[in-house]
Design a protein that fits this description.
Elements lengths: L8 H29 L10 H18 L11 E5 L2 E5 L4 H27 L2 H26 L9 H18 L6 H9 L6 E5 L2 E5 L17 H4 L3 H7 L19 E9 L5 E10 L1 H21 L4 H14 L5 E7 L5 E7 L1 H5 L6 E3 L3 H9 L3 E3 L7 H4 L4 E8 L5 E7 L7 H66 L8 H29 L7 E4 H15 L4 E6 L4 E4 L3 H14 L7 E9 L2 E8 L8 H4 L15 H12 L3 E6 L5 E8 L6
Parallel strand pairs: 14-16
Antiparallel strand pairs: 1-2, 3-4, 3-6, 5-6, 7-8, 7-12, 8-9, 10-11, 11-12, 13-15, 16-17, 17-19, 18-19
Length: 677
């Protein structure tokens, strides 16, 4: 139209030249598109592209700078035909050479596309054919109007280009040029071994060969996914595994189990164009999960039984039902560990034997596993005494140690000559679980025996408490009463002996009371009830008692008011024992003591400092032992043992430190208790 509406020869030639330049570019672009589309991107390089463009660029340059050449050379004239004025040009040989080059380029592009049709996937084949047909329309127009004189005022090439555009548009929507199916087919379907199905609008548009056994219809492409693969959509939406139905005319053998995943495909406008379903086979994984669930169930059953024989029964039943090993048994050693005897067997093994299984030490196959703790696999029972057990139809045997408890034998029938790695792993898990259950049963048995022993010891302690409470204390009371009656009759020469007897009687009585208190405390240690006790008041009372008892002793105090700790009625006696220990082991008849009690970093701290001879570092911890005696007095250090036991009951601690410059500091710490008394 630009040429026909031109008002002068100059403008007509200008528009003709511009059209020629545009037409020259089309074949080059066509070839470039064909190379890219058919996967020959490596042909489009910085080296090849200049070579392809060399001739067109040179001809365009000559057409622009040389009036004798070009699309509208010096021969160009305006002519009128049938009332229409058009440009008439007599072309030179260079033009026809240029035209032949462009035709060669076009034909080359068609050649690449045609060869791609033969090799391409079904979807690409349809698209490629549509592209070739759309390209042939303008190619035919250019060929006709460039070679044949049809005696028309203007060429119809633009019309044919319009027709080509219409064909491309129809193919665009008919064959989904912009859809995901070609990409899925080329990239995903051809590369994955798992079944892959491409779906758009609920219909299957492509799939790979691994998916073929899943389909329940003969014509797959275009079928509804739910019809072709029933249950797949439900499995994907619920996140469950998928087991396909088996077609009656095409058995798949063992029905596989898949983990289906759906991935949405979106175009560059973020519009949902379809979905890719990938089914990863998890048949073996599913089988392992089921076996593990069964082993977990066996573990729960182990918790419900206590006897070792009952645990062994559960283990062999699991080996038979879960691991499918019908010839399994558990053997325990006898008391002197000379024979391994069966305590549990599967029913099939038991029916095949007239008596229990028993293996002496000369049967190394069993004893080596028990003593070394190393599992062993045998392909048959050849290593066992054939005269006694060789007739059993066992194909392979796995012996697993159960620690000090015995051996688990897992046997398969003659159909199998070896164990798979999964079977070995699950058998090891069963053996480990069985050993753990047997350990638990043994510990519980020992605990019950220990509890029975504790109960017996408690009864004995209660008996001796009764002896202390009734016999010894009653005897001391009688002795003291008679000493009071005897005192007026004692002569001066016997006074020292009389005082010694009386002092020892008082000491024995006091010691007996302390022994009874500690015994009762230890016996009731699991049920001691503590309450809030005023430590300030308890310390003050015991200091007052010591001052009254030992008037020669000097006792200074620094006691904070309102100190409370968790204790009981023996708290004052604990403090008194520490005070008496400081006085009785002093090397001066007039000892000096300082008693301090205060809060300290969340606890309550009591310090009893003396100026005595001190305690060696080695004795600072030993003095709390029950049987430690004093080197100076020879008395049993029961008081400090009593202090140590009671401080443990209170959740506190007691220790000795050196005083400066001389003496010892006894430190007692209690958890602070802010509860009301």
């Amino acid at each position: 139209m630009l040429v026909l509406t031109s008002s002068s020869l100059v403008s007509a030639r200008r528009w003709t030249t511009l059209i020629g330049i545009c037409v020259t570019a089309i074949p080059i672009l066509w070839l470039t598109f064909a190379l890219e589309y058919t996967g020959r991107e490596d042909w489009v390089t910085r080296t090849t592209l200049p070579l392809i463009w060399a001739e067109p660029v040179c001809y365009i340059v000559f057409a622009l700078v040389s009036p004798a050449r070009g699309f509208a050379n010096e021969t160009a004239r305006l002519t009128t035909s049938d009332g229409l004025t058009a440009l008439s040009v007599v072309h030179t040989g260079s033009f026809y050479f240029h035209l032949v080059y462009l035709f060669v380029v076009l034909v080359t592009g068609f050649g690449f596309l045609t060869s791609f049709v033969v090799q391409a996937d079904r979807l690409y084949r349809k698209q490629t054919v549509a592209i070739i047909l759309a390209g042939l329309v303008p190619f035919f127009s250019i060929s006709v109007f460039s070679v044949v004189d049809l005696n028309v005022a203007f060429g119809l090439t633009p019309v044919f280009f319009a027709a080509s555009g219409i064909l491309d548009s129809l193919a665009l929507f008919r064959y989904n040029f912009l859809d995901v199916a070609p990409l899925a087919s080329e990239v995903v379907l051809s590369e994955m071994d798992d079944p892959v199905i491409v779906v758009t609008d609920g219909r299957i548009v492509e799939y790979n060969s691994a998916a073929e056994p899943l389909f329940q219809v003969d014509s797959v492409v275009g079928s509804q996914l739910e019809t072709a693969v029933p249950g797949l959509l439900d499995a994907v939406s619920c996140g469950h595994s998928f087991t396909p139905a088996v077609r009656t005319d095409d058995s798949m053998g063992e029905t596989p189990v898949y983990d289906p995943r759906s991935t949405p495909i979106r175009d560059h406008h973020d519009a949902h164009r379809g979905d890719i379903f990938v089914l990863r086979e998890i048949t073996e994984q599913k089988r392992r999960e089921e076996t593990l669930r069964a082993l977990q169930s066996a573990t729960r059953r182990f918790m419900d039984v206590e006897r070792p024989e009952a645990i062994a029964d559960v283990a062999v039943q699991t080996a038979d039902e879960v691991l499918d090993h019908p010839y399994s048994a558990i053997l325990f050693p006898d008391d002197d560990e000379t024979i391994l005897r069966s305590v549990a067997m599967t029913s099939l093994l038991e029916r095949g034997l007239d008596e229990e299984l028993a293996f002496s030490r000369d049967v190394e196959s069993m004893w080596s596993v028990f003593e070394s703790g190393t599992p062993v696999v045998y392909e048959s029972l050849d290593l066992l005494p054939r005269s006694k057990y060789g007739y059993l139809p066992v194909g392979c045997l796995l012996l697993l140690p159960l620690g000090e408890h015995g051996v688990l034998g897992v046997g398969s029938d003659t159909r199998k000559r070896t164990f798979t790695e999964n079977e070995r792993r699950f058998a090891r898990v069963l053996a480990s679980t069985t050993e753990t259950a047997l350990d638990r049963a043994r510990r519980e048995r020992e605990l019950r025996e220990s509890q029975a022993m504790v109960e017996e010891r408690t009864e004995q302690i209660e008996f001796f408490n009764g002896v202390l409470r009734h016999d010894i204390l009653n005897g001391i009371t009688v002795v003291n009463g008679n000493l009071e009656l005897l005192e007026p009759h004692v002569k001066a020469s016997g006074t020292s002996y009389f005082d010694t007897v009386r002092k020892w009687s008082e000491d024995i009585g006091a010691l007996t009371e302390k022994v009874r208190s500690v015994s009762q405390t230890v016996t009731d240690s699991e049920s001691v009830s503590l309450e809030s006790v005023s430590l300030s008041a308890a310390v003050t009372r015991r200091v007052t008692k010591v001052r009254d008892t030992y008037p020669n002793a000097s006792v200074e105090t620094d006691i904070e008011e309102g100190l409370t700790v968790a204790g009981n009625e023996l708290l004052g006696e604990v403090v008194e024992n520490v005070l008496l220990n400081a006085i009785e082991h002093h090397d001066d008849r007039s000892p000096s003591l300082v008693v301090r009690a205060r809060r300290s970093e969340g606890s309550v701290r009591v310090e009893i400092e003396d100026d005595g001879p001190g305690i060696s570092d080695g004795m600072k911890t030993q003095v709390f032992d029950r049987n430690v005696t004093s080197e100076t007095t020879g008395s049993i250090g029961f008081g400090l043992y009593f202090v140590s036991v009671m401080m443990d009951q209170y959740g506190g601690a007691v220790w000795f430190e050196d005083a400066d410059p001389r003496g010892t500091v006894a430190v007692l710490t209690f958890p602070q208790d802010d509860r009301p008394e």
